[in-house]
Amino acid sequence: MIIPKNLEELATYVDKGQNVFFFTADWCGDCRFIKPALPEIEADFPQYKFIEVDRDKYIDVAAKWNIFGIPSLVVIKDGKELGRLVNKDRKTKAEIEDFLNSL
Known about the structure:
Elements: H1 7-15, E1 18-24, H2 29-34, H3 38-44, E2 49-54, H4 59-64, E3 72-77, E4 80-85, H5 93-101
């Protein structure tokens, strides 16, 4: 999981590559629930880079991307959105993998 140090670094992942943006926050219980499964999900989908986006640190990005519930995932390839799993519900490993397989 890549954790960008600033907005400029985060922007580089939007513009180039095939990336999964994982919106999260320290206080989010559902985010903490799925986090232990993320290394396995990353291993199952090596075609993607996984980028952790702290919703509180990047609140303007979250608002611009209509991220009003976390944990949420947005997949972008070379600046074009391929799909999103955005809601406030708890996500399971199977649900995330089904979503990524559907793209």
